[in-house]
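Notes from the 1:1 (GR / supervisor)

We went over the backlog. Supervisor wanted to see one worked example end to end before approving the batch request, so GR pasted a single chain during the call. The sequence is below; no edits were made to it. Supervisor asked that the structure be written out right there so they could see what the output format looks like.
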Amino acid sequence: MMHSRERDSLGELLQAIDRVLDAGETAVVATLLTGDVAIGAKVLIEKSGRTTGTLDNTDLSDGLVALAQRFLESQRDVTVFSLAEVSPNVTGSVLLERLQPEPRVVICGAGHVGASLARFGAVLGFHVTLIDDRPEFVTADKFSDERIKLCAAEGWANSVRKAIANGHGVSVAIVTRGHNQDEECLRAALTLNPDYVGMIGSKRRTNIVLQRLRDGGVEEQRINAVRAPIGLDIGAVTPEEVALSILAEIVAERRARRGGSLSSWRRHDPRDHTKQPEPST
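Structure output shown during the call:
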């Protein structure tokens, strides 16, 4: 039977989780699994170091905050750690779980590539916002999946900023039909802080747009973060293949990976210049 103190603690934890998710933030839920500790005790650890819940052990609590920061940087979703990594005087194990908003993709442009990207993104579990300034390109009869939100933009910049919101968990793919639309969408995206921004086009086309932003005073650091041309190099030709290459890069970015071949360590493939750790079984 749950005591009143335990109920209060659980209620505080659930409220804190709701607050973090409502703010679009990322945090860690730590659960003690084994050892000479309060097994089953949970603590919410936010990026700022703020905690909700108590372990009645200051050294353990402080150590878990540091461990949670390392865990967040790893981009993993769940991991079990030995408590010896946290405090040498404590035995047992702790489960760390990433708490974050559901991933979203904002797609600027509903042409062939954008449409394919929206459909593929929904299949992969992303919440998709598909924007175009041509209303006939974003109609419900073309996109019946409820995970795809359609936006007929009267102005690109306002629609893009509204869709990105605070940017947490958001990837932006700019696949419009021309330089001017690309520039307007990209300029709007870079005023915010999405997790990923990419723009379609040849090296020449993307360089033109990026130089315009540079000339307009956009910080070099923000420009360098743009994936342009967008996507991984898989030799994509068709719209569907291009969409696949874009989503592959978005997933790789979310997971902090480079997108190389998983078997290159075995084959020493000269085409693969990335260095990936040997996969575990």
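Supervisor's comment: The longest helix spans residues 4-22.
Batch request approved.
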